[in-house]
Amino acid sequence: MQHIRAHVLVCAGTGCKSAGSKEVELAFQREIKAQGLADEVMVVETGCHGFCEYGPLVIVYPEGTFYSRVTAEDVPEIVESHLLKGRMVERLLYHEPMTHEMIPKYSDINFYKKQHRLVLAHCGTINPEQIEEYIAVGGYEGLGKALTLMTPEEVVEEVKKSGLRGRGGGGFPTGLKWSFAKQSVNDKKYVICNADEGDPGAFMDRSVLEGDPHKILEGMAICGYAIGADEGYIYVRAEYPLAIKRLRVAIEQAEAMGFLGENIFSSGFNFQIHIKEGAGAFVCGEETALMASIEGKRGMPRPRPPFPAVSGLWGKPTNINNVETFANVPQIIVNGADWYCQFGTEKSKGTKVFALTGKINNTGLAEVPMGITMREIIYDIGGGINNGKKFKAVQIGGPSGGCLPEELLDLPIDYDSLTAVGAMMGSGGLVVMDEDTCMVDVAKFFLNFTQSESCGKCTPCREGTKRMLEILTRITEGQGREGDIELLENMAKNIKETALCGLGQTAPNPVLSTLKYFRNEYEAHIKEKRCPAGVCEKMAVYTITDKCKGCGLCAKTCPVKAISGTLKQQHVIDQAICIKCGACMSVCPFKAITKG
Amino acid sequence: MDLENKCCCGGENKEKAQIDEILSKYVGKKGALIPVLQEIQALYNYLPKDILEYVAEKMNIPISQIYGLVTFYSQFHLNPRGRNIIRVCQGTACHVRGGKVILQAIEKQLGIKAGHTTEDLRFTLETIACVGACGLAPVMQINEDTHGRLTTEKLSAILDRYK
Ligand SMILES: Cc1cc2nc3c(=O)[nH]c(=O)nc-3n(C[C@H](O)[C@H](O)[C@H](O)COP(=O)(O)O)c2cc1C
Ligand code: FES
After folding, report:
1. With contact defined as beta carbons under 8 Å apart, do A495 and A461 qualify?
2. How far B102 CA sits from the closest chain A CA (Å)?
3. Are residues A286 and A218 in the same domain?
4. How does pLDDT run across A501-512, given as a tens digit for each residue?
5. Is the pLDDT reported for residue B4 higher than 80?
6. Would you say the ipTM is above 0.90?
């Protein structure tokens, strides 16, 4: 019998794949065979480890040695040195960005040390395309327990008691939502998993879908049993082809094993799951729009009530939850609500997965207990700001959220504390911004996004966001007027109060929060016609320094003939003519043109 | 190949047969229009007008309703597209790490604006709001491949790989 003495885990998440992990995996297969180790060493393709910044990632067990940024060329050395001779390849180990300390072990890396991985527990350790591996780590135990030992009422009660709140943005108590759908009397009910993940800057749902798809299926089936539904849909955005593929594989395997289909665990409970691919519309993440889209219509929201629990998909009672919400369910059933309640704060239980991105050293996914401070996430886990720059703000909650300044870094994060300071948990996307980021530009960025994604059904959102965007645009172009700030605040208030769905109701948030914490930047743009961060193109002043050799290339390139000077002498830009296109700067061979 | 289809208008018949095959998979299924259109687009790369009219007739849906859908969802296209689809991410994470500069550089290199196709049909340039690889920002996708940690210097070499 063959005895596997080492496992080589190669990450096959989207991040690592695009950095070349497939070639790395193939190289391992080849090299291990060539060295005659095929019977002793197994190569496993896993889901995302969350530490995308350092991909492709390779972890060698039993030691748990963590190799980062591995290329196919490095593989022979790892096989020869580590797997054959038992010596780590030091140059590929991870080094802490702040201290430059070398950390050989996965579990000792700061990025992972402060995390508490419950939802992501198996992402990166199991092969997501093999149901046996999920079962080996306790998979489908929760479904088994629910179906054979608990009544639907008990399941709902347990979820209620756990304090789990929706991870899709609003933070609505999940158990309560289930109890509403359960109470609705109907011969047909549906369960929907919202995997539309539209927030531009969030990818936690993607990683769970790609790295541990069975967990979602299990959570949905438990929900189906609890509320009395026999059919479920997963609405996945089409931009996630790998997630769709892995879900299809998972559904097929779960059906073959009897975890989905008829008479599951001989309990008489039937449940089947379909996949619906989104077609590219942010508003389809909103639950009523999402259901319209599944029905084959334009994905436009409708007023609630009636809530989906009463009249949802095809008019039937429907329970809709986010991917991460469903991923929390199996462990709650297996370990009990009391166990789950030990994590988190009084009103926000459990853990939350955050997507750390932007100007931060360790970008990736971090799962932490609710109540942790932003400072711990950004500095301890995230390794601080890139290139020794100064922190300016962190944006949380995507287009519905807000920007928090330095003073709020010690705020314990949970649903309620974030709402109180004008931000929102949202999906959990954290985009870190440094001193080089212009906050007016950020507000404009988000408004541009919501404006172009507005479905156009209600006037406040369709027209209001457009007018607000016009104002922001003119501010960033140096045409801001006295009174613009007050006008923005006034419009924001009206849109929030009158828009039909969550998209419009929250669209002004990025503007309001930047106005609240970074008002001086708006004032600099309006009063001094100056962008303090030097981002807003139209306000930039281009100047030619004495590094100029007088080659004349800039003068030739300038589309409006704003540059003059004699050959071999320093040229000058006429600011009155300059249209700030930056063309001169990009052609100057001597880097003599500066922008400020 | 079926002999009957080999007449002068054979091309069209063959096309219809393909569409019929797609439609037959969804007979009696609720909410089928979007998946049907997705499959047709996978076949043609875009949604030709005459095919949409054929679908409308076959599924007994007003053509206006189909246009309503097609223009609502950004995934659907009414014009032919290039052999290679470039989607430059303009999501938040990519924005703060210079996604706009990448887009401008590609626009300049290809001589087209986002939303357009090069004349030789080699590339269609689009933007996308987050491909979920924010850790590698700035990011773009070409066809099924994701390219991350982009700099303007890397672009030419990457584009060269797609003919
Ligand atoms: C404009 C808009 C976009 C949304 N996008 C998403 C999304 O991408 N994913 C998600 O889970 N919820 C999204 N939501 C929230 C859903 O409407 C819904 O509240 C959520 O899926 C419920 O699940 P939960 O209770 O588990 O959070 C969005 C809401 C709005 C208003
Ligand atoms: S913002 Fe570009 S990949 Fe997410």
Report:
1. yes
2. 14
3. yes
4. 999 999 999 999
5. no
6. no
